[in-house]
Amino acid sequence: MSTISFLKWGRSLALATLAAVVVALPGGAAGSGPIKHASSMTVVPPAAVTQYVEVEARVALRNNTPEKSTYRVILEVRAGGVVRPIYDQRIEVAALDQELVSARFATADLVGDGVVHCLVTPIGGVATEHVWPLKVVEADSRAAPLLQLGWFEPGTYSNFGYPHDAPPDEAYLRAAIDQYNKIGVRGFLIAYPESIYRGGGVYYPSKALREFEPRCDFDVVGTILNQASKNGQHVFVGLGRGADLNLTWTGFDDPARNEAAIAHSIKVATELWALYGHEPSFYGWYLSHEANEIERASKSYYNPVTRFLRTFEADKPVLISPSGTPVLSTAALRQSEVDIFAYQDAVGSGYLPYQNTFDPERRIAMLDEAFAKYAAAHRDAGKHNWGNLETWQMSGPDYNNAFPADFSRVQRQIDIQCRHVDVITAYALGGFMEPPNSSVRLGGERAVKLFNDYRRYLSQQAESRTANASESPP
Q1: Which end of the chain is more exposed for a tag (fewer CB within 10 A), N or C?
Q2: Among 183, 188, 158, 192, CA closest to 172
Q3: pLDDT tens digits for range 442-465
Q4: Peptide bond between residue 193 and the one before it cis (omega within 30 degrees of 0)
Q5: For residues 86, 91, 97 and 101, what is the CA-based torsion angle, rounded to 10 degrees?
Q6: Which residue segment(s) compose the domain that 235 sits in?
Q7: pLDDT digits over 153-187, tens only?
């Protein structure tokens, strides 16, 4: 697999990889009054994939008329001069309602550059075309051995205790996002928009949570989304945990706790969508509550919130990041309405079942077996299996004072995860992987070193592939 081809693709198609290219075809006037029939498309994953990964095309059909409507949805993949049909159905949508169409397809014969093409036609109405770039690269592992998405903890930008030479501000964060884009980070996950549970405040201009103080001098959430839109990157927006940190650990059978948490999530999601739903980078949602008992957490909290989020644009996927000890089965995955599971590798604290050893080597020793189990549970579950790779470390004895890991350790995590997952995400970027030209130097020299070492790793892989290609017989 050529790493450099992933990076060149990400930069050259940056603006083309906005949520989707949408074209109203001849036959009606776009933008004249309320849209009676609306649609949108999202492709999962939002980054380049290998030939082993199954891709999902998701199309939301929104009927804004007082009568039921029927839509013809045609999906096809166009790559290498070949057009492969993947879906062609008529879908009935009730009045003032929405339906989600999902079609999955294998990529083994699609190596190269292509597009996912969709045509949505309300019967008797105007057709709408959606186009999403697709890149499939031949590889020796299931996932590309790259950090293709990265996590942001907004608290990092409110002087959260990381070393820094100057206070982080909006200009700094925008510049950092640009630098992450240059090393192939195609999207971000905002871990939370508020930190109420630890006595914190909000990281965006909230009216719904007006009783809590802003924690930064600028809109962290809006800045990430806006700059990512400019770069053609994609963003999952987290909902936070409200005041109940341990909801999905100890609150399964407490209706009052769940009702309060669901109401809080609905309130925050509604405001976030109203503020930022127009951003092309707004790709999906992240449910910030972590859990190990996936089935119980899905029934009590994840599923009700996911159903509500589908009322905005149903094609936007919902992601959770299970703990380092997930109680998992194919059946549990199937009954969950969440779309993407990004499993924490839990290396940062040297996590063993229900124990932080603060020895990363102990966790790494069991990592291959753990991720193999996750992959086995995902077979035929209809869910996306991603990795959440921790770029930090702690010395103990308490769970605090995280610092950037050495890249030699991170590379071993990449090597293990890429054998089992579809996409690797990095937790986290800010404070742990710092661009070297930064005036803030958030996270100090260790963070700059991790960024530089990862960038060097990308260059070495590219050089190796180029050398191997030149040595191959014609």
Answers
A1: C
A2: 158
A3: 999 999 999 999 999 999 887 766
A4: no
A5: -20
A6: 149-462
A7: 999 998 667 888 999 999 999 999 999 999 999 99
d(CA 247, CA 243): 9
Compute the distance between CA of residue 79 and CA of residue 398 in angstroms, rounded to an integer: 52
Residues 247 and 127 in one domain: no
The average confidence (pLDDT) of the chain is: 91
Looking up tokens 């769970």 gives 399
Does 88 share its domain with 192? no
CATH number (domain holding residue 88): 2.60.40.3880
pTM across the whole model: 0.93
Q: Which of 82, 107, 137 is the last residue of a domain?
A: 137
Q: Which of 74, 102, 137 is the last residue of a domain?
A: 137
Q: CB within 8 A of 206, min separation 6: which ones?
A: 193, 194, 212, 268, 271
By the 10 Å C-beta count (0-12 exposed, 13-18 middle, 19+ buried), 34 is classed as exposed
Domain count, the chain: 2
Contact predicate 87/74, CB 8 Å: yes
Range list of β-strands (E), 146-195 = 149-152, 187-190
Which tokens in the block code for residue 120? 């949505």
Q: How far is CA 35 from CA 27, 95, 182, 207, in A?
A: 14, 14, 37, 28
